Amino acid sequence: MASTSFPTRAAHGHDLAVFREADGAMLALARLVAQRAADAVAQRGTFRLALAGGSTPRRVYEQLAATELAATIAWSRVHVYFGDERCVPASDPASNLRMAREALLDRVPIPRANVHAIDGTQDAASAAAEYERVLGLEPLDLVLLGMGDDGHTASLFPGGPELDVTDRMVTPSMAPVAPRLRVTLTLYALDNAREVVFLALGPSKAPRLAEVLGQRAGPVSAATLPAARVRPMSARNNARGRVTWFVDHAALGGEQMAETTALADFGMIGLAVMGRNLALNIADRGFEVAVWNREPEAIASVVRESNGRLRPTVTLPEFVAALERPRRIMMMIRAGTPVDAVLDSLQPLLDADDIVIDGGNSWFEDTRRREQRMARHGVRFVGVGVSGGEEGARHGPSLMPGGTVDAYERIRPVLEAIAAKTEHGPCVTHVGADGAGHFVKMVHNGIEYADMQFIAEAYHVLAELLGLDPPALARTFAAWNEGPLESFLVEITAQIFQRGDPETGGWLVDQVLDKAGQKGTGKWTAQVALDLGVSVPSIAAAIDARVLSSMKRERERYAPLLTGPAQTGPPGITVDDVRDALLAAKVGAYAQGMALIQAGAAHYGWKISPKEIARIWTGGCIIRARFLETMMHAWERDSALPNLLVDETIRRDLAARQAPWRRVVAAAVSAGVPVPGMAASLAYYDALRTARLPQNLVQAQRDAFGAHTYQRVDDPDGTAVHSEWLTP
Hints:
The protein is of the alpha/beta class and about 725 residues long. Helices cover about 45% and strands about 10% of the residues.
């Protein structure tokens, strides 16, 4: 039923949802009604809908009664009203109530008491007065209207006295054709609605539709057609409402419209910082981008910022109608239930082979579930990890897409165009199937936690043990950024130490409260590592450090109570030692993260290339660093490398740096300066190089108190045995 459509666009104060075929317009309008019903019930508890009469709306109602859409509507919360009615019995073929019952109301479980009909058997004046009482003063949520070939709407006719009624919601009217006696909502009632949607289809509407749209640009006069007078965005109700026209190609002049309007290449849902900047980035690369956001102010703002290059849409159906097929839609919204809520509204509007991209920090298992859900409807779902923050989104992020290969190939031109570029190519690759993209982004964030913790520990050691003040720290980190430690995080650290505080005259970094926040992706990394049996101690230590930092009041209370070591003289370390310790610890965290990625790939059946992951992280992302090129070369030498630390080049470099690494950790521990991240990386390194660890005793204890058994050194692959350790 869905048809190729033209995009929504503004025209003389109207929003147009333009469709090539009438069927597409009617299906989209039916879907809009279902969406508005869900929104109104969620926000206000009920949905007040006014139906139009006529043969064209009848087909919309039939679509709305279809099982899929009808099942999404809480009919017990829907109250149906009518825009107008002929003064005939409800059994008369001309009755709008009869038509609505046959097409919709008798086919859905709406309570009879919720259908508020105009009594066509009364005289028009009495029926109008009674319906005014029934309608009440609460605004209608949605009014559906048609437009006659003469420009009338509801039963408001050109030149009719009912157009001048400004103090009543309902009034009698006289039609130029039989049955002439009518009862209609007034312009006052229509302008009081939260939303009005017109449906105008077919070539017979074209001349009058052009006239109506033109009249919308000017003031109301005696010559203004009734359909052009419906202005729920007018000043009389503080621009609360809106009006949209659902029209087909023929109603807008056929081929002339086709020649002047093009579909958008890509759609963006969610226009907070990341979505906004990605939309602008995509537009900069020459793609036509349609945008939608629940808050209209966000749409208007980003369209202004784009100098009109981004295409605004008012409703979700209009947004979907604006896109070429198969559609490419990206969501940049808060992870969790908001993603599922948008999918609930979006899925009924989509066609087979459309692609929906989730670019937020979603839990990878949610992404796997959502891909399966959307696949049942023929829609392809792709989770894409996006790293680089606000600047990266605007000028070039690192992108980690999952999903199917064919879906990736369809979105690849856009992703490659907007991604950061390095000498190794665009910082994007197809990571793997279903949730692989979000899994890799999760691990990226875990490494990011560790990297930031190492830098903070280096700062702490330099300041506390070596006495460096912010200017000296700025010079030190700037110098380090010229060597093997070159990275985005080291670069911005140098800049942070240069920023003065205008309020105190000191340094701004000293005025920042020592409580670090977190959004959850680091925690996920540690949890998944435990589930997969992968050791990530540096990442776990970084998470613990943030948790401890959040205990500010406790730390202030305990500080005078818990004593530390006595000062024993110079620390015995240099600035260069701290540099080497920072680099060595960093290598350990990357090794842990890549081991987790490899374990995840094995567990979930993803074909992830570690070399490609290192490549796409060389630019755009928060952890971009010179060392990533070393990682690339390591997997070039051995694509089956089991752990980064055993690469020949990396192994030699760590051997050369381990002495200063150990000195720094020892000096910090001796001085009572916490370095949990550096110490965890060192312990990881030492554990991996220790052929026999003391866990033989741990396992013996487990067997002693719980009969958990153990395996013998002389039979490591044999049957587990139990011993009676505690027998006298």
